[in-house]
Design a protein that fits this description.
Length: about 230
Amino acid sequence: MPRVPTVLIVVTSHAELGNTGRRTGYWLGEVTHFHRPVAARGFPVDFASPKGGTPPLDEKSRAPRDEVNRAFLADAALRGGLEGSRALADVDPDRYAAVYLAGGHGAMWDFPGNARLASVAESTLRRGGIVSAVCHGSAGLLGMKDTSGGPLVRGRRVTGFANLEERLIGLARAVPFLLEDRLRAEGGLYHRAFLPFAGHVEEDRQLVTGQNPASAGGVGQRVAALLAARTWS
């Protein structure tokens, strides 16, 4: 592991919302609100996506009144890092102490079954690092293996965008599957907040997950605290 733990934020490269004719991509606040507490602890961050280059931003997520979003976009180095994301194929997994899968509906298409994404995350786990995800980013956990070769989420407390939330925003039929159902099907001990769209974070061993956009900051805080509590050689 690196002496100064470095965190890899992975965002989607997928821009089409199923057959709706609408555009999607990554959710900006799920990047920025995670990044802030991690950066505040002094941990360097890199950005990657399945295809590399400028990932598609879900325009609905710009939220110009969001001070965290504004500060992130005003930082030329941060914005340049995200808009010049590394292709997952070019990522050295040995460089990272934590991997974070940001959400946005696009992640439902190019995160699950992505062999390279799984390889990077599983390598991080084997070296004692942290795998984390929020909202639809938790779709990337599907098919991942733990250090014993079983499903990563099996027997672990986990969360992600809830079925109820997907139905309330009217996209339950647009997505290729319902994330909550799939996490449960792989043996995950799925939990969510009582109220839809309220923040909710689950931590179980080396896995930290958040339910929805309101959970991204909480995931960042937990990942940062876990990294800070470790001695890295």
